[in-house]
Amino acid sequence: MPGLRRTPLAGVHERLGARMVEFAGFSMPVQYTSIREEHAAVREAAGLFDVSHMGQLGLEGPGAIESVDRLLCRRVSDLRAGRVRYGLLCNERGGVVDDVTVYRLAEQALFLCVNAANVQKDRRWIAAHIPADVTLRDTSAETGLLALQGPASAEALARVTTHEVATLRRFAFDRIEVAACEVLVSRTGYTGADGFEIYCGAGDAERIFEALLAEGKPVGLRPAGLGARDTLRLEAALPLYGHELDDETSPLEAGLGRFVALEGRDFIGAQAIRRRRDEGHERALVGFELLERGIARADHRVACEGRNVGRVTSGGPSPTLGKSIGLAYVPTRLAAPGSSFDVMVRDRAIPARVVETPFVRGAAAGRGKG
Amino acid sequence: MTDFEIPDDLRYSEEDEWARLEGDRVTIGITDWAQQQLGDIVYVELPEVGAALEKGEPFGVIESVKAVSDLYAPVSGSVLEVNTDLADRPEAVNEDCYGDGWIAVVAVENEEEHATLLDPTAYQKYLEERDA
Predict the structure, then answer these.
(1) Pair A81, A62 in one domain
(2) By a Cβ cutoff of 8 Å, what residues of chain A touch chain B?
(3) Domain interval for residue A39
(4) Residues A47 and A60 placed together within one structural domain of the fold
(5) Mutate which of B36, B65, B95 to test chain A, going by most A C-beta atoms within 10 A?
(6) Which chain B residues touch A30 with a CB distance below 8 Å?
(7) Domain total in chain A
(8) Which of A19, A69, A254, B5 is deepest in the core (most CB within 10 A)?
(9) What's the CATH number where A41 sits?
(10) Low-confidence ranges of chain A (pLDDT < 50)
(11) CA angle B14, B127, B59 (to 5 degrees)
């Protein structure tokens, strides 16, 4: 697609006959064969995603850790080297600048994996809030990122490395050789399934992707696109920036309170998040399922007794459950599981019921971003 | 462009619907090319029996996992039957778009309208030109 950025795996996608779409300025594969098949592969075996569009921002120097402690809504100073933590960058209003994963590399070094659409915004935001002795480096363009997700992921990965990977703990990372290339591999993901994310040099991405495709085939691995990534993360009720999160939304409204450490510390946005909490939130993010046929989509209205009371942020079919599910901001009085409201789909009011999230509980439905 | 089927005995619209004329009834559906573009179909919003369709106007909605698309009437006429099986099995449109995945049957008002649809060769050419 003209005018769009290509990932280091563009040639592979073309060879595999992927359907490409624009996402965050990149030409990305939305599917190779079928979103359903790719979704099922991740739930039952393994799927391999190109997520090289995501950004990586490295911080290094004597004040690096303290700076990120001030920028992130949870502590990173107690994050050990070799560990990953999910967190949120917030603005002074208590809104979310981005949701990120933090990789602690060393005593004075870490990097953040950030959403593709937010790389420039995050870079500016971080640069404005770090002292001169901290270096900020954007390594996005030189980094390839593969997400290997699903219950057979460890088995697939073990076939292309001599390193022991099955024992890598959730939210831990290691530097190993995969397909004879140096990589950083973490036990993280964005699908609600067990899996790994593999950071490599852009020039090595194709070799690693091809090796995993070939060696993973016997365990049921197949390439998977952004379409399946979205249905998988929706089933796991993982937020997508720009949908569930934005510059005005407090992480507490988004139901991310367990990732916000407000007591005994200060960070940018903490005061506003506290104040908004104490004043009482008017809305909350909930998971719902439709009780009649239809598909809820982002920006559909939520109605209660004929009045417009909220908005769907993400919605679609759940291939695993065979139901129509979604996430929506609704008034807090409608937020408890079992509450009901209507979702307006093309002037038709479809009854919906609030349910517990995640919709699908995987073997390792932990939180992470890929 | 990937392979797609264009049966000889049907007529086609530029909105990628097919029409099969049998006496004064026209069965309509979406083409193989269209179902491949949409991907996994998960929901079809059908017109009511008795609804009046107008050629070129939207009469229903078809949704894949990712996309929502309007269905455009290839011919005008009132709806005689709709494929209610699609409520439980919308994937029939992917599996057999010219057979079990039919969408509706319309009572023909104007036979000339049917004749203005594209024949298989013209539809094939139309797709190639549009894709180019």
Answers:
(1) yes
(2) 17, 19, 30-31, 34-36, 227, 230-231, 293-295, 297, 316-317, 319, 346
(3) 5-51+141-235
(4) no
(5) B65
(6) 66
(7) 3
(8) A254
(9) 3.30.1360.120
(10) 363-370
(11) 25
More confident residue, A251 or B23: A251
List of residues 6+ apart from A183 with CB closer than 8 A: A175, A176, A177, A198, A199, A200, A204, A208
CB A54 within 8 A of CB A116: yes
What is the pTM assigned to this prediction?
Answer: 0.94
Task: Using alpha carbons only, give the angle A283, A229, A210 rounded to the nearest 5 degrees.
Answer: 160
**A35 & A94 share domain:** no
In a shared domain, residues A228 and A147: yes
Q: Would you call A316 and B39 a contact, using CB atoms and an 8 Å cutoff?
A: no
- Chain B interface disruption, residue of A21, A23, A31, most B CBs within 10 A: A31
pLDDT for B61-84, tens place per residue? 999 999 999 999 999 999 999 999
Q: How confident is the model at residue B130 (pLDDT cuts 50, 70, 90)?
A: confident
Residue found by looking up tokens 């009469």 in the block: B59
- Rounded to the nearest angstrom, the minimum Cα separation between B24 and chain A is 32
Nearest-by-Cβ selection for B42 from A19, A31, A317 = A317
Q: Which residues of A199-220 are buried (b: 16+ CB within 10 A; e: fewer)?
A: bbebebbbbbbebbbebbeebb
The complex's ipTM works out to 0.88
Round to whole Å and give the CA distance between A326 and A291: 12
Q: What are the chain A neighbours of B43 within 8 Å (beta carbons)?
A: 293-295, 317
Domains defined for chain B, CATH in brackets: 11-131 (2.40.50.100)
